[in-house]
Amino acid sequence: MALRKIRIKSRSVVVNWLVSYLSVLLVPIMISGIIYTATWHVVESEVNRANESLLQQMEQAIDSNLSGIERLSVEMALSKRLAGFIPTTKPLTDNDYYEVVSIAADLRLYKMANDYIEQVYVYYKNSDTVISTRDHIDSRALYNTIRERDDMSYEEWKSFFDRRYIQEYAPITLRDEGQAIKAVMYAKSVLLDNPEQPGAVILFIIKDSKLLENSSPANRSSVAVLDKQDRLIASGGLEHKPGFLANDRLPGNNGLIYGESEGQEVAVSYTTSENTGWKYVSMMPAELFDEKMKYVKKLIYLSLGLSLLIGGVVTVWFMKRNYNPISSLIRNLSSRSGITFEEGSNEYGYLQTALNDTFAEKEKIGQRLEQHRDAIRSHFLQGLLKGRPDTDVPVHESLAAHNIRLSTPHFAVLLFHIEHYGKFEVNGFVDPQKVKLVQFILMNVAEEIAGSRYQALTTELDDMQVCIIHFLDDKPEEEALGRIAEQVKSFVLDHFHVHLTVAVSSIHQEVEGISRAYQESLAALEYRLVMGSGEVIRYRDLPSAGSGRGSTGYYYPLHIEQQLINFVKTGDYEKSKALVDEIIEINVSGASPSVPLAKCLMFDLISTMLKTMDEIGAAGKREFMDHVNPVERLTACETIKEMRTQIGEVLKEACQSIEEDRKQDQNQLSQQVIAYVQDNYSSENLNITMIGEVFKLTPSYLSKQFKAQTGEALLEFINKTRLEEAKRLLSESSYAIGEIARRVGYADINTFNRIFKKYEGITPGKYKGLM
Fold it and tell me: 319-357 pLDDT, tens per residue?
């Protein structure tokens, strides 16, 4: 009944409240979860402490008995009767058999000294005799009685006892009267002073049931003992060793982990013996923890149920109480504003929309008025710049209508060209809205900088920003125009990283002079091809501004062109680039050429490079031209600086191409030398001088090139080629060594012996004897 009048939809404020209240209800749920987790850890800790106590008792009992066995083994090793039988060999004599009976009697006494001992064996390696408390056998019979695995071979079993010294425990299977019993073997070597004499090994057999007889695991729990090699020494309640029972899965001396045994999750407590390094493990089904936690679960479920029930009732009451004032406000606003409220939508969103619509309508009215005012004013200024003002209205009336007051007849024009949009440009792209923003910022900066002493009138014309400077002083200075241009350029560069080229006209008289000033600024801007982008270019500094004509030529004589060709043909990029820079610097720093002459100069330079490629006959010229594409790269440049950079890059790639061709030719030289040596190694006259005469090269140059291309000295390659053939003849033929030396190019057998031993480490005679 309480929510009957409230439309609960996904966008309604009621949904937001409901989510908020439910979030509050999550607090007791989270607290209950924390309490349950903490209780679980307490129970887990107590069970683990109890298991650790049981394991420590088992560890102490086992370690104590094992220590007794180890002390007994030391006593037996010192027994003269046991040690006296070690030198005995096969076959045994009657006296030897008497000794066997005496040793067996001693072993029975030793066995009675420790209840853990199931059987005692002494294995004498020298005579292959195994003596126990009952009889004596050989090693093969002992192998059939005790071994670690059923699949263990006799050789693998015997390798354990063949070691010089043994003192360790190992799990085994004891076969006694046809039964296979799990047991543990402790083996200790008995050695004589003579290291050449094989010793004996004392073997103590302990049933794993004996090891665990003092352990009393809890209901449904299992215990196990694991040695350092991850072998299961003993176990109680386990048929097979679980996969998680491994030392690397049981870190530290003690702890608690979880694993899976026979498809059931178990909690594993473990501790480590300081004496033997064995892991004593207790495994309890994890579900036993749940049994201990049943009462805690009931309490937590009860508290959660009460929290949800009481919290739900309180939530409904507060939602109805808080929603009534908002509903009344929306009904009143909807009836008066004419904006319909859709049932189920967000109430706060409706209020915000209604207020925003009111403010937006007011703002649109003001913007329309302002936009029309700026557009009309901009259109008027564009007419003045083009020399075509509106003839229907007198100029002085239009100036007054646009709040433009002229105190002096002096005017000039600044023309701004944006080269790079700086922060507003992303990956070479500028959003059109960002372009408008940059233009707006630029015009405001120009007005602000010029506004203190001059009247600045800004507009946009032909995608460029134009600023008309009206001088308020009767004695205008053209230097002021340069300062304004520099300040505007520096400001936008420092704050927005926007790069500008600014063209500055001369000062003209009267309003009619504005169009002439604009034409001068256009001419100055065009000259950025020569001066480069990002500069302030004054019309008065143009070559044609003073004399009425520009330069009639440029510096690029024939001998300089030939010198450049020679540098490129040799692949010398550094010298060719320096010469190009010098040519451009001479032409730009002196009497600056006109824009057409500057383009002609650059085309002459690229033409020189193309002619050079033709002269050297580069095999990959077509591929080079397709890849580098110098003509299109040059014509796409807008300034001489860009053209200069492109020329440098083209020169670099051309020189690299020439250098690569030269390296390929040089690599062919090493291949030809290798082939020549392999064909003529049997010649006694083969040496570096002879090869140099064949290839018309000096010996030193030939050696240097061969070493650079192959990484190996030419003389060493000759010797190695001859020795490879000599080794083949030594192993496959019956030739005398002197004949073999002659066949591989050595006239002196002593020289052949010396070089053969240098590279192979032995003489040819010894080498042939080894074959």
Answer: 777 767 777 776 676 666 666 666 656 666 666 776 677
Q: Give the residue carrying structure tokens 């004032």.
A: 325
Nearest to 325 by CA among 357, 356, 348: 348
Give start and end residues of each alpha helix (H) in 78-122.
Answer: 80-84, 94-112
Identify residue 70 by its one-letter amino acid code: E
Q: Show the tokens assigned to 723.
A: 């020795």
For 723, which DSSP code?
Answer: H
What token pair was written down for 596? 């057409």
Is 80 exceeded by the pLDDT of residue 155? yes
Please answer whether residues 763 and 726 qualify as being in contact, where contact means their C-beta atoms are separated by less than 8 angstroms: no
- Give the separation between CA 587 and CA 576, rounded to whole angstroms: 17
- Label residues 423-433 b or e (16+ Cβ within 10 Å = b): ebbeeeebeee
Distance (Å, whole) CA 600 – CA 334: 75
Cβ neighbors of 245 (< 8 A, separation 6 or more) are: 224, 226, 230, 232, 259, 281
CA distances from 692 to 629, 663, 665, 759 (A): 42, 19, 17, 25
pLDDT tens per residue across span 103-141:
888 888 888 878 778 889 999 888 889 998 888 888 888
Is there a contact between 404 and 457 (Cβ–Cβ < 8 Å)? yes
DSSP lists the bridge partners of residue 261 as 264
Range with the lowest mean pLDDT among 23-37, 56-70, 486-500, 512-526?
A: 23-37
Q: Which residues, at least 6 apart from 557, have a Cβ–Cβ distance to it below 8 Å?
A: none
Exposure of 604 in the CB half-sphere (CA atoms within 13 A)? 19
Give the position of tokens 């009675």.
112
Round to whole Å and give the CA distance between 213 and 482: 106
Q: 700 Cβ partners below 8 Å, 6+ apart?
A: none
Tell me how far apart the alpha carbons of residues 504 and 375 are, in angstroms, rounded to a whole number. Answer: 25
Orientation angle between helical segments 640-680 and 621-628, nearest 10 degrees: 150
> Is 176 or 615 the better-scoring residue by pLDDT?
176
Residue 771 has what DSSP assignment? -
| Tokens 């923890």, located at residue | 289
